[in-house]
Write a structure and sequence with these properties.
The complex is a heterodimer of chains A (264) and B (292). Chain A is an all-alpha fold and 264 residues long. Helices cover 75% and strands 0% of the residues of chain A. The longest helix of chain A has 35 residues. The model of chain A has no long low-confidence stretch (mean pLDDT 90). By secondary structure, chain B is an all-alpha fold. In chain B, strands 1-2 form a two-stranded antiparallel sheet. Classes of the chains: A mainly alpha (264), B mainly alpha (292). Chains A and B meet through α1, α3, α4, α5 and α6 of A and α2, α4, α5, α6 and α8 of B.
């Protein structure tokens, strides 16, 4: 492909916009090493005290474990529920499967603030507010559409001839699925796992409606902390979270190819 | 079952087991979707017609009081107009900031392109709370910008707890979506057409205005639709950077639902957001018909 040389104006403009885009992520790093008791840029002194402060804060550690457990449970359930659904919609193609697929991915079209309110009203009736089960159900509503989309794409792009070959060799359907289809879907499965995990771990608006004094998730705890006081604690937490996200992304990239998972 | 029996088996029962299988495989997701999405959303629409007593208690009696209140109270009219204009402004600003990056990405290649693409996607993978916190560090009273301005003796600006802060923060937060949408729409951009224009003596600005911009309109329309919709419904950033002083539909929904506990009003405002979404979609599809 013959490329047009990039003009200096465009280069400088793009550079400036990249700085703008990455600025909020970059500034939290120096602030996390601040020695001040409230947020200031540049910090007047330096220290490492905010990192141990995270672990000393019972609220944050409890919220972290809730978020981690929640993300793991939600991801596992998303795969368990999403895989049969995607297989049915793509391979068995029942009548009206397109309408069903649209219905199952529709929660993504709704703003989370509206979805959160709708779920809050119904879940309050069943005593599901501020419970782990309620959080799992609410998160599943948004992770499942992602799971169905990625898994359906993975299934639809598989060479069906291999499955047919296994069938002519008289393998029963379940064996074909387990021994042929599933291994070929590897990158789709890894992509779904990472996507559901990150979506659930980061979800804040739905969780805001579903949490309470008894149970909180990490993003909600961070939100309330930032709302109430501006100290460098959240900066240190942010740095740890960015590192954690990078790790997940690296693992996915090594095993499935990040670009393929997130860009289209 | 023997092979002969399988062949001899009548068709209808087999079809019946097929249907049973489909139903069994789809049952879990239907349950989640029904209980967590369909029922709540239908219930929300219904609740917007519930009456609220002056004491704040909700009565399960249908009426148009909430809707009439939203349409007669100037506060809500202002809220709606404010939400739409602020979101439009953010969308336009996001487009202006994202376009150079998208165009640059479109023209770069190889490892460099991959690195830049990861840089564009990485903020998307970072919590909005973290990025908003970063903006507080930049825009607050003791933040990066104000201290830099103070250092050069330019005085201080109020950049937070007002619309300025909300617009700056949301613009940055929405940029990755806009960049990806623009990139998806840049496929029609053929470098040979630009080259032809320049060899025919067009200035770089003229090439951009007459060739590049019209060819990338579909991507622009898609990106703008996406960002407008996300801006109208965003909540975390306006709440933290607006500090309760910037009134938008999304923040008002949360306050009515959690603080005031006026669920019918929150439901009505939610339906209004969906109506605005619908309007944006109609405008988008009209624009696409004239573009292509």
């Amino acid at each position: 492909m013959d490329e047009r040389p990039v003009s200096l104006t465009l280069k400088l403009l793009a550079l400036a916009m990249f700085v703008f885009l990455l600025a909020p992520l970059i500034v939290v790093v120096p602030i996390s090493f601040s020695g001040d008791n409230y947020m200031m840029f540049p910090p007047t002194s330096w220290s490492l005290k905010w990192y141990p402060a995270i672990f000393a804060s019972g609220k944050m550690t409890a919220a972290f474990w809730t978020s981690l457990l929640l993300a793991v449970v939600v991801t596992a359930l998303s795969l368990l529920i999403g895989l049969p659904a995607a297989y049915t919609l793509v391979r068995l193609k029942p009548r009206g499967s397109e309408a069903l697929a649209a219905l199952f991915t529709a929660p993504l079209l709704l703003p989370t603030i509206v979805l959160g309110l709708a779920i809050l009203i119904v879940f309050s009736r069943y005593g599901l507010l501020a419970t782990f089960q309620g959080l799992v159900a609410a998160h599943l509503v948004v992770t499942l559409p992602y799971a169905i989309r990625v898994l359906s794409t993975a299934l639809a792009t598989l060479p069906i001839a291999v499955e047919e070959a296994a069938a002519t060799l008289s393998a029963p359907p379940l064996t074909i699925f387990r021994r042929v289809t599933l291994p070929m879907m590897r990158s789709g499965l890894i992509g779904t796992t990472a996507l559901c995990f990150l979506v659930s771990f980061d979800e804040v608006v739905l969780s805001l409606f579903m949490t309470g004094p008894r149970i909180s998730t990490l993003p909600v705890a961070m939100y309330h902390h930032v709302e109430q006081q501006a100290d460098p604690l959240v900066a240190a937490l942010s740095v740890l979270l960015v590192v954690l996200t990078l790790l997940v992304v690296l693992v996915v990239d090594r095993s499935a190819g990040l670009a393929r998972t997130f860009v289209k | 079952m023997s092979a002969a029996a399988a062949i001899a088996a009548p068709v209808p029962p087999e079809r019946k087991t097929g249907l049973m299988l489909v139903a069994a495989l789809l049952a879990p997701i239907a349950l989640v979707n029904g209980f967590g999405f369909l029922v709540p959303v239908l219930n929300l629409a219904r609740m917007s017609f519930y009456e609220v007593e002056p004491t704040g208690a909700m009565r399960e009696v249908y009426g148009l009081a909430t809707w009439l209140k939203v349409f007669s109270d100037t506060f809500y009219a202002e809220l709606i107009v404010n939400s739409i204009t602020v979101s439009l402004g953010i969308t336009l600003l996001t487009l202006v900031c994202s376009y150079p990056i998208a165009l640059y990405l479109h023209r770069s290649s190889g490892t460099w392109r991959t690195i830049l693409l990861v840089l564009v996607i990485s903020p998307l993978l970072t919590s909005a709370v973290v990025r908003t916190y970063g903006w507080i560090a930049i825009l607050s009273e003791n933040g990066l910008l104000n201290n830099a301005l103070g250092a050069i003796g330019a005085g201080r600006l109020r950049l937070m707890f007002n619309k300025t802060g909300v617009v700056i923060g949301l613009t940055e937060i929405l940029m990755p979506y806009m960049i990806l949408a623009l990139l998806a729409g840049f496929g029609r951009l053929d470098p040979r057409v630009e080259e032809a224009a320049s060899t025919l003596g067009a200035t770089p600005f003229k090439v951009f205005w007459r060739i590049i911009l019209p060819l990338t309109l579909p991507g622009i329309a898609l990106g703008c639709l996406l960002c407008f919709v996300l801006a109208v419904s965003s909540f975390i950033t306006p709440k933290l950077l607006g500090g309760g002083r910037v009134f938008l539909l999304a923040t008002e929904i949360y306050d009515q639902a959690i603080v005031t506990l006026n669920w019918p009003l929150a439901a009505t405002l939610s339906i209004l957001i969906l109506v605005i979404f619908g309007g944006a979609l109609v405008l988008y599809s009209r624009a696409m018909r004239t573009v292509i």
